[in-house]
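Researcher: Let's do a round of design. I'm pasting the structure tokens now; please hold your answer until I've finished.
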């Protein structure tokens, strides 16, 4: 069974690396952590898309889960990501502000023109970190700060 890289842990919280390809909820990361930490419950307090890897915070008590969930849902945390994107942006930094619709039946997220039922505002800021022109298709490394946390937000907004 896979063991997870724990960065920090105390009686209330655990911060660990979620590898790409492992779900952050359900039978993914929490189940692995229960085994690794030999504890009864592990509560995810935020999401990270299955395809993405990075640091995640998990609560180990109900009280800590409620407090941390409140911090994440109340935008009292900073969520930053590094992303590799196709092409080279025209500017060194920018802000994307869009309306996103997540179609649960198709499990796809789309940028839409205007607000309607099921549509949510999505905003992120980005700064160019570096570019590569070495291959046939150039790509860029960007640092992304999420102001909202929508499903597949970074991929959808950059591809739009």
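Researcher: That's everything. Go ahead.
Model: Designed sequence:
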């Amino acid at each position: 069974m896979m063991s997870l890289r724990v960065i920090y842990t105390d009686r209330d919280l655990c911060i660990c690396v979620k590898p790409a390809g492992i779900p952050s909820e359900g039978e993914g990361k929490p189940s692995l952590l229960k085994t690794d930490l030999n504890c009864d419950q592990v509560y995810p307090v935020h999401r990270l898309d299955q395809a993405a890897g990075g640091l995640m915070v998990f609560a180990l008590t109900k009280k800590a889960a409620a407090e941390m969930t409140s911090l994440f849902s109340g935008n009292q945390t900073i969520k930053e990501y590094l992303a590799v994107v196709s092409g080279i942006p025209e500017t060194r930094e920018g802000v994307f502000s869009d309306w996103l619709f997540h179609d649960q039946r198709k499990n796809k997220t789309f940028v839409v023109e205007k607000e309607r039922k099921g549509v949510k505002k999505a905003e992120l800021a980005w700064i160019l970190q570096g570019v590569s022109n070495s291959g046939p298709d150039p790509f860029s490394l960007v640092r992304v700060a999420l102001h909202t946390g929508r499903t597949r937000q970074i991929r959808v907004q950059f591809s739009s």
